[in-house]
Amino acid sequence: MIRVLLTRAGLVLAGALTATLATAAPAAAHGADAPDGTDYRTAITSVTPARPGLSVRVVEAGARLQLTNTGDAAVEVLGYSGEPYLRVGPDGVYENLRSPATYLNRTLAGDTKLPAEADPAAAPDWRRVDDSATVRWHDQRALWRESAPPPQVRAAPDREHRVRDWVVPLRAGGEPAEIRGTLDWVPPPDAYPWWAGAVVGLLAVGALGLLPARSAAGGRALAGLGALLVAGGLAAVVFTVGREVDAGARGVGGLLTGLLAGQVWALLTGLGAIAAGVYALARRPAAEFALALAGACLALFAGVANAAVFARAVAPVPWPGTTARLLVALVLVAGAGAAAAGALRLHAASRQRTPTTAPTPS
User: Fold this and answer.
1) Best CA proximity match to 333, nearest among 242, 237, 243, 225
2) At 255, is the pLDDT very low, low, confident or very high (cuts 50, 70, 90)?
3) Exposure of 196 by Cβ count < 10 A (0-12 exposed, 13-18 middle, 19+ buried)?
4) Dihedral over alpha carbons 242, 243, 245, 246 (to 10 degrees)
5) pLDDT, tens digit (0-9, with 9 covering 90-100), for 213-236
6) CA angle, corner 140, sides to 177 and 118, nearest 5?
7) CA dist., res. 331 & res. 243, Å (int)
8) What is the pTM of this model?
9) Contacts 24+ apart (CB under 8 A), 287-290
């Protein structure tokens, strides 16, 4: 029975990993290239002149700018040669097919090949791309796209540096306007202490699986593992929701749409870990199997998948980087620790249930 459960757990994990890899490629192909973290902090300092209904914010850890215009007049974002690039107004969002920025800004790297019709001097050729009042785009003026850091960073990498002040020109109601902001280098944290702490924590949690399951200590260990897995699942859900908020999701509907479209596996593993933890707290049959499977999924899809924050100063959430790292560390400790403890308890139960072979009479 135990061997069958472990086989099914492996099949579930393999299927989930395959589905994740299969769905990741189409998402990336549509420009879903939000970074898992960065060492460059993009901030908006002003939008001038202020207009009713016009707001701009930084999303996706600085990878994109988001402009919302609920006013009566359309607002245009100008491209790198001063040509009309985007238009946002009461009738939706439009992009100018003649603007080189339309193609360069489709990826974070800005390496899209320009088509022959891209000509900033040509009359705009507007194409409607959305019926909302919000547009998000990569803007090279607010990013550092070189592979090597700026010279001042290379000279003193342990200090914050102002890389540049940037400006994105607008045309609002036919009048000039602009978005002003800053781009700063922030020294990344040392990832080693975070990984070391996570490994020590998960080993300590996993060691709880060595306690005899039928003893009083083993019963308390099962309850502790269930509670820890609930905490890890909650941390995963909070981090996942934070990523969508940082990506620009607005309202409950927008949040749910973003979660289901781009963060579904992390969300499901977080919710599954909560359910498995409650199941273990109730000391239901096969609680060890639930701990092992849910813990492994949690560690893989919500822990390892977000572990880049250990080595990045700016995390893709609307909180300080330290908070993001604590959440991911908790996910890893709870998930991997519960998986190891559950597997050890399953192994011990399997050995106890294996019948001993009677000696053959001579």
Assistant:
1) 225
2) confident
3) exposed
4) 110
5) 888 999 999 999 999 999 999 999
6) 85
7) 15
8) 0.83
9) 287/222, 287/226, 288/213, 288/222, 288/342, 288/345, 288/346, 288/349, 289/5, 289/6, 289/9, 289/342, 289/346, 290/342
Residues 243/255, Cβ–Cβ less than 8 Å: no
Q: Identify whether the C-beta of residue 139 lies closer than 8 Å to the C-beta of residue 105.
A: yes
Separation in Å, CA 216 to CA 210, 219, 276, 339, 347: 13, 5, 21, 21, 19
Cis peptide bond N-terminal to 49, omega within 30: yes
- The per-residue pLDDT for range 86-103, each reduced to its tens digit, is 999 999 999 999 999 999
Q: How many CA atoms lie within 13 A of 356 on its CB side?
A: 3
Cα separation of 78 and 81, whole Å? 8
Is the Cβ–Cβ distance between 65 and 137 less than 8 Å? yes
Q: How far is Cα 190 from Cα 188, in angstroms, rounded to an integer? A: 7
Please report where in the chains the tokens 């002040």 appear, as a residue: 165
Asked whether 92 and 132 are in contact (CB, 8 A), the reply is: yes
Residue type, 151: P
Residues 270, 349, 217, CA angle at the centre, nearest 5°? 75
65/136 Cα distance (integer angstroms): 6
